[in-house]
Amino acid sequence: MRIFRYWDNSQKCLGALADDGKVYRLDSPDLMKLVREARAANVSTDEYVRSRINGLEPLRVVSAESLDLATPLDAPEVWAAGVTYQSSREARNNEATAGRSDAETYYDKVYDAERPELFMKSTAARTVGPGEQVCLRSDSSWQVPEAELGLVLDSEGAIIGYTAGNDMSCRDIEGENPLYLPQAKVWKRSCAIGPFVRLAETMADPYALAITCRIYRDGVKVVDETANTGQLKRKLEELVSFLKRDNELFDGTVLLTGTCLVPPDQFTLASGDRIEIEIEGIGTLANTAVFTHELE
Ligand code: DO4
Ligand code: MG
Questions:
Q1: Is the pTM of this model over 0.80?
Q2: Which of 117, 179, 186, 262 for a ligand 1 pocket mutation test, highest count of atoms within 8 Å of Cβ?
């Protein structure tokens, strides 16, 4: 079962996408309320949603994707893990050393260290949903999307579900100095999540998901790369356990688990590029990149 939100007559509605492709409108304001109600009823959220849609007429739509999809939840905070895949480690090393050095970098160290890299990526106001514009920084000339598996957490750090995320990043700012990481990662609309949250109890194996990133420029596909969460260096619970340490989590916090896909080094995003991030069993998150002054 997948949960999502969509716009109907300027109102955000909650929807359920069942495994048979049928789409239902849920009479509930948000995912976390469903989770709490399911717990109170001592059933899984999946079972609870099934009981809610039992007897309901599905929406007369071709597919859930044909709806005007919104963020699946208002994540109060989005955190992100870094250098959790070998491909990310290699890409960061290229940024930091311009491909010149074979000396050990901070990225090598964090890849092997017990403590993972975790950083605050976004707030609800900076996070956009499917179909919305993500922003490019005006002071960077090397920008990429980062396609990442996102964990939707409750305030205890339990994994409620999985979504797709885009950790927009400036490789030049990040490579210039590790202390610039917040500027390389956080700005207006630098994060997108959605459109669906696959309920955790219905996810067969989160370590066996194909992740694809496609980028279209003027209608032409210029990037098309696929990797798999099977290449993740760390366990999801390990990332969550570090995030929880002496920290306060809020219901609906999202933790992006790091990218396994970095476009070729010569690639940088341009205004108007359409970014598609597809995660097997979850769905496709699509956004167009523009500069902040071009926002519609
Ligand atoms: O250390 C830089 C950030 C790494 C990151 O965002 C990733 O690996 O996905
Ligand atoms: Mg990332």
A1: yes
A2: 117
